[in-house]
């Protein structure tokens, strides 16, 4: 049940759009192209199982974890209230 001037199902549409944006963002960050046997940041060997699981990988798990910690997400305001758009 939607409230105000929204149609029924609008909240579910917002949730689906948010999840879809998250999936698209994650897919865009997947490695592409030729991978390497050594990490491009620290020079350590990348385990074969990691290279098989993620073709195109160029960083070891530890360096990739550091990269992932610094990812900034752009938040899309999907709320329709005036107060939320003024922030």
From TrEMBL:
Keywords: Metal-binding, Zinc, Zinc-finger. It comes from the Bacteria. Pfam families: zf-dskA_traR. GO terms for molecular function: zinc ion binding. GO terms for biological process: positive regulation of secondary metabolite biosynthetic process. A zinc finger (dksA C4-type) spans 39-63. InterPro entries: Znf_DskA_TraR. Residues 36-67 form the Zinc finger DksA/TraR C4-type domain. This is Phage/conjugal plasmid C-4 type zinc finger TraR family protein. It comes from Brevundimonas halotolerans. The lineage of its organism: Bacteria, Pseudomonadati, Pseudomonadota, Alphaproteobacteria, Caulobacterales.
């Amino acid at each position: 049940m939607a409230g105000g001037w929204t149609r029924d199902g609008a909240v579910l549409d917002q949730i689906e759009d948010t999840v879809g944006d998250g999936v698209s963002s994650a897919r865009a960050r997947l490695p592409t192209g030729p991978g390497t046997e050594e990490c491009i940041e620290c020079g350590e060997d990348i385990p074969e199982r990691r290279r098989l699981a993620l073709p195109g990988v160029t960083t070891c798990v530890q360096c990739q974890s550091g990269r992932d910690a610094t990812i900034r997400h752009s938040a899309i305001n999907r709320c329709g209230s005036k107060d939320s758009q003024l922030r």
